[in-house]
Amino acid sequence: MCKVGCRLPRLCLSIEVVLRNTRVLRTRLPVSLILLTARPTGFNKMFGTSRELSLISRPRGKQRLKRQTNNALLLHEPRDKNFLLFNHYFSLVCPISSLFDSGQNPFRSYVSEMMASSRLLFLCVMNMSASDFRKNDGSSIAPLSFQTEAISEISEEPCKITNPTIVTFDKPNNGPSIILSTSLYPVEDEVLLGIILLGITSSWYDPSSLDLSHIDGSRLLFQSWAKDQGLDCPSESRIMTRIQAFLVPSMVYCEVLSLAYLDTFLENAVFPSSFVCPWTGVETSVFSCLGRIGSPIRRKRSLVRTTLQDESGISQGMAYMNSLNEASLWENQMHRGQLPKLSSIEDTGDIKALLIHFRQLAHCYQLGGCLEPYCAFPELARARLESDPAARLPCDGIDKQSQLLLGIALDILNTLETIPDDCRTIATWTLVLIIAGSVLGKIKAVDERQFMSEQYTFNRNIERWGKFVLQSLSRIYQIIGLRTIQRAITLLVEVRSHIDFGTAPGDQTE
Length: 510
Fold this sequence. Notes:
One of its GO terms (cellular component) is nucleus. By secondary structure, the protein is an all-alpha fold.
């Protein structure tokens, strides 16, 4: 406990250290004002009351007595841009950046401690806060200014890795010198986290940006960092430390968001399932498989658009089979994967983020990871029907493959519907909602005049779940406020309208 009764003394100390040591943020504001305005949910329980906080405020001069009499006046003091963004980060950005919000939230603990000694990470956090603060104001340049400074700071890091350092060793007895060229450079945790945050939050301000400009740099830094951490050894599996288990899923999340995946990505690393990742939930390995499945699917779709052979002379048929085999590998891993037991997972300390809900979300990731390849490769769907006929949703008027796709999509939506509306896991529903919603959009309503009441019920059921998808996405937009969610809603509505009018949706569902 610190002197203000703080139950998170490291966070309290970090705020003070950041303000004192970071040259970007040099204000004369008392620490009590910082803590009063940087209020997360349940502030008084974690940090103490305003009266307790006033004990560490020591204003000088004639205003001292006045400030101690009415602490509320502190909230009306002039506050500069950096202070406002710092406040916004702790009060609003931290809760929406993590699937749980408590003292265990890495953005309140690890990140606040790390940016106290890292100007680079501080700039990245300010960019993160400014992007969220000004996300609905396209004319604001605040996010761009912090982003520019952060990129300037981080631009030297990849060069230290790609440009080898010449090291000379003199042999004894006047022997010839040995000249070694090495690119070994220890990538700091703060540097890696900084570039990941830049990539992930780039679309917060500009929804057309999918952090592709940061991918190459972050991959280079990540590979070097993983090597330094001993996570790239193919001969042995390693259990990650807590900080590693925060950074690696962050990179996985960044890769999946950018519709890409690092091919040589810690093949033998064991993602710890003993605690919840703020980005991906309880099973990062499932989320990473979901990202990997997208690679063969995109290659298959690119083959559909061209009839030419690729540069290596491989025919379309061979390229298709390669994509099919890779997709089959990941589909099999998703379908047969085992989720961790709830008793083995560390509690998040957040009553709005229960472990059972994280496990349900991981199950939806698994289903989505199977549904995607079934949509892209009919062979995989037929194989699943042969091995598991009960997976389909029987209905006259649609083929068996569509019944399979619909059955899995409704399984996802039924699972999500059981999760309470105020659960924080909703922040990562977007991907599986789009996957399931796209399947609903492709199912054309059966002709009720030719069939019985079952078809009428079927059509109404599809309409209900379609509304559930759009309502869930709208709720996510209200919570997070990112315009990329609006684009997803527009996409699904357009897909549905194309089906209703009997026109082909083309590549929009991709």
